[in-house]
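Suppose a colleague, Dr. K., hands you the sequence of a protein chain of 680 amino acids and asks what its three-dimensional shape might be. Before reaching for any lab equipment, you can write down a predicted structure in token form. Begin with the sequence itself:
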Amino acid sequence: MLNKDELLRRTNNGLDVFKHYISSVQWKVGRNFLNPLYEDRKASCNIYFDRRNGVYKIKDFGNDDYSGDCFFFIGKLKGLNCNNGADFVEILKTINRDMSLGLGDSDYTPTPQSVPQKSNPTNPEPPKNKPYNIIQQKFMQKELDFWLQSGITPEILKLYKTVSLKEFRSENKENKPFYYTSSESEPIFGYMGKQYVKIYRPFSEIRFLYGGNIGESYCFGLEQLPAKGDTLFITGGEKDVMTLAAHGFHAICFNSETSTIPTGIIYKLTFRFKHIVLLYDADKTGIEAAIKHEKALAEYGVKRLVLPLSGEKKNKDITDYFIKGNNRKEFRQLFIDFLDNLYNDTMTMLKSCEIDFNNPPAKAEEVISAGNVPLGTQGNILCITGGEGTGKSNYVAALIAGSIIKDNRTIDTLGVNVRDNSDGKAVLLYDTEQSEVQLFKNVSNLLKRAKLNEKPEELRAFSLTGMSRKERLQAIVQSMDKYHYEYEGIRLVVIDGIADLVLSANDEAESIRIVDELYRLAGIYRTCIACVLHYVPNGLKLRGHLGSELQRKAAAIMSIELDNEPSVSVVKALKVRDGSPLDVPLMQFSWDKELGMHIYIGEKPREEKEKRKEKELATVAREIFASQKHLTYIDLCDRIQQFMDVKERTAKSYIKYMREKEIIIKDPSNQNYFMIGHII
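The predicted structure, expressed as tokens, is then:
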């Protein structure tokens, strides 16, 4: 009997079909090769086993239009459409005949999978290569008013290539010409693509039409998306995409709610957005389609948000939601409620870790703590390091104090300028070492430094000592996401200390994973994440794999050390992204008994700075020349760039300085600028 299931059974779930028809190139399951369906120049396609459906499929990562099962592949090869009933029968007959399977053609029995799906009558699937002609016109005021009721401005229409049409001409299925003309009561709009136009007639019986070749991976709004963002909504239609854009949200849509969503597009978007959320109509069709897509895209973390609408006409989509009078803030709150439900278990657990200033914890034995300093730019990591007893806790407290100030009051931030928090963004402190009592005391002291009588609502301090290392990172990631939306941004995140998020600071894989995740979060939420590393650096470098990864990713690394005078702490830069760390002033602070806190006492003299620069560069030279006695100027410049993580211009200035101080000398016998280490 000739049917789909029997054919798959006889061809090893479709694998033998691919082996029979793909003979022009050498390939193996799971290995990339050139797609034979078109002039493929890069091997980005492979055969794999789809466990969910139990069949072998071809996947083209370069062009998802050429991905599918063996029936789809033969259809492409023979110019047949496997979604068409007659064509599908021909595909089965072709495989049966070419592979001599011995299945009777007359016995063909259609299976549910082989029957083509009916198109959505309100938004039908478009035909391919359909000839068309359009006449554009300027938007009339009544047309602009139609869009403006959804918040869509002329600028949004232009951005999304939406035009007003005077006339649309095309051909029907029988290749007979037809046309529509615009009128005041039945306007015509066009969503313009490179090789197609999608027609939208909001007040007509036939609302959607197509011209040209719209393709199988139609995605409206994709090219207007930013490189990175926090949330991306998938809506049911183009108008909803523009409505969300008009209210400050990122969105895309496919041809209709029932259209298949290309997984290749979703996979790529997961690297650019924290959340991808289905926001379909609240009617029966929209809800069922959203549930189906959520299940199909579960591996990509796609969720669905249900609008609080009745689902009736003019009360079912996001455009209706805003037309009813809801604003951006109310929709944000709807999304925050969605996150509360999504993170319910974590937030409940984290609530027990939050410091309650109305009910201070019982006094317990004091534990030595280390501080966390956020010092850097939005989207980057700042690392603070140093030994115990160097004053890190007080230095961190000063920076946090500066970050919660909302007015023009002047406080001592130990020589560092800290941006205020006049816009009320969240300031988050996660402590992985100290007890609730000690953390309560530290936060109380920083409030005193900030000259505040009570804790601002946006300052959240958590003691995570009662959590496992895995739970700590999850709590940080999810609570950051929640507070980002609740306070419309995060001013500063302090993680005191980062080493307690990994099993070992010398575990390379874990170190890379943690630092990459924090760097990604800093970029998504446009905040500075300050990480405290609790051990002493070795010269200009940090120890361990965790230290090395922070050295590579952090925008700046500050080290706090005790001066020759033990009562004075010195802050020096080990790395700055722009410029040289040796050019950063050496800042000093010490304890003031009368004020009961550390105070800034100025910079070290220039002579001290020069002495430090010469000493540090001598150490660098010894390490670089330890394994190789002679280096060319170019090689030496490269080694300094790698060792100190500085730019080429800075490395060249260091070479000049080391020659002037006779730390290194040029070999006079060679014209290629060989360098030799000078024994210090």
